[in-house]
Design goal:
Elements (H helix, E strand, L loop, with lengths): L5 E5 L4 H12 L3 E6 L12 E4 L5 H7 L5 E4 L7 H6 L1 H21 L4 E7 L30 H19 L3 E6 L2 E2 L12 H11 L5 E5 L5 E3 L1 E2 H13 L6 E3 L4 E3 H12 L4 E5 L14 H7 L7 H28 L2
Parallel strand pairs: 1-2, 1-4, 2-3, 4-5, 5-6, 6-11, 7-10, 8-13
Antiparallel strand pairs: 9-12
Bound molecules: nicotinamide-adenine-dinucleotide (NAD).
Nicotinamide-adenine-dinucleotide (NAD) binds next to helix 1, helix 4 and strand 5.
């Protein structure tokens, strides 16, 4: 054990958590990963990986024992289809995880605790146009977050503040704007737009058509996962206790995102817009003024570059699956 910082990453079987564990290990720390499941695509780099359901109080106590810092990334979450479909389950599961993790961390004398919030806390009435101004941290109030997932995140942010107010328990709060990259979910219903579009483009024949949710004019900004991990580590090391945006301010429409991915794939595809599918808020972008001030840094991976890496990874995974299925059919 020695004098190494002992770090817990929850959600270590998930996308961002898995990348964060790798980076913390590369930086020389002792790392415990906890999740309700093992990572899907490769083994965790954690010194100690425990499969635990963090909705349960006792499991949160076990997870936080002998730990200096907690990155609490565990959450029941998914893309826009998933978070608009399951309001009660998502809220209940995440309330239990976040309330128990915070209290267990305090009881076990954790020195610092980082909570991963989301741009879904921002007031919906401020996101009604596609070319809206970037969202500043104060735009979360007066509150009107996304039902279910967003309301829970906003209250869990408040809970972190209360733990500092009442107990001087050190908390950090990050608000992620869409994160993408390799080793993220790309099918099954929990995937987000860059992964879902990459999968559709990879499956399509050149000259074919793919389905796009909404009219494609809705806008978002996207952050590459390596930038996300760098920002998390910087925020944990900072003295900033208030919520902080972590994202890029390179806003694109979904149609433009599709064109970029088609360009990377070298395919020319038509878009069939399905207006019956959920599309979330009309526009969303990150104001990075405070981020630059607090961290002296901001995410810089160009979208085209990050998407090229992500697309190649998803295409490779789909090819592996096809080969596997073919082998099953032919009995190889
Ligand atoms: N990826 C994004 O664009 C994005 C945007 C905003 C906020 N966030 C937040 O960042 C965090 C990490 O997101 P991600 O993209 O890596 O998602 P993810 O779904 O890949 O990871 C979350 C992990 O939490 C685990 N989990 C769920 N319920 C659990 C339970 N009861 N006990 C233990 N583990 C449990 C899941 O199994 C999963 O591996 C989440 O808190 C999420 O809400 C992510």
């Amino acid at each position: 054990m020695g004098n190494k910082t002992r770090i817990l990453v929850t959600g270590a079987g998930g996308f961002i958590g898995h990348h964060l564990v790798k980076r913390l290990k590369a930086d020389g720390h002792w790392v415990r990963g906890v999740d309700i499941k093992q990572p899907e695509y490769e083994q965790s780099a954690a010194d100690d990986f425990q499969v635990l359901d963090l909705r349960m109080w006792e499991n949160c106590l076990t997870a936080t024992r002998d730990i200096d810092q907690v990155y609490n990334l565990a959450a029941d979450m998914g893309g826009i289809g998933y978070i608009t479909a399951f309001l009660a389950d998502i809220s209940k599961n995440n309330i239990l995880i976040n309330a128990h993790m915070l209290e267990a961390s305090k009881q076990n004398d954790v020195k610092r605790y980082l909570f991963s919030s989301s741009a879904c806390v921002y007031a919906q009435y401020k996101q009604k146009v596609a070319d809206l101004a970037p969202l500043k941290e104060e735009d979360a109030y007066p509150a009107d977050p996304e039902p279910g997932y967003g309301w829970e995140k906003l209250f869990a942010e408040e809970l972190c503040r209360y733990y500092y107010h009442d107990y001087k328990f050190e908390t950090r709060i990050v608000r992620f704007h869409n994160v993408y990259g390799p080793l993220g979910t790309y099918d099954g219903g929990k995937e987000k737009s860059p992964a879902a579009i990459s999968r559709k483009v990879a499956h399509a024949e050149d000259g074919g058509t793919i389905e796009i949710w909404g009219d494609g004019l809705q806008t978002r900004s996207y952050m590459y996962v390596d930038d996300c991990v760098e920002g998390l580590i910087r925020l944990m090391g900072s003295n900033h206790r208030e919520p902080l945006n972590l994202g890029t301010d390179e806003m694109v429409s979904i149609n433009h995102l599709v064109d970029m991915i088609c360009g990377i794939a070298g395919k020319s595809l038509s878009k069939a817009h399905d207006l019956t599918k959920p599309q979330g808020v009309r526009g969303r972008n990150s104001d990075n003024t405070l981020l630059r001030k607090v961290l002296g840094w901001e995410p810089s991976t160009p979208l085209e570059q990050g998407l090229a890496i992500t697309y190649k990874w998803i295409e490779g995974e789909l090819k592996k699956k096809e080969v596997g299925e073919l082998a099953e059919v032919t009995g190889d």
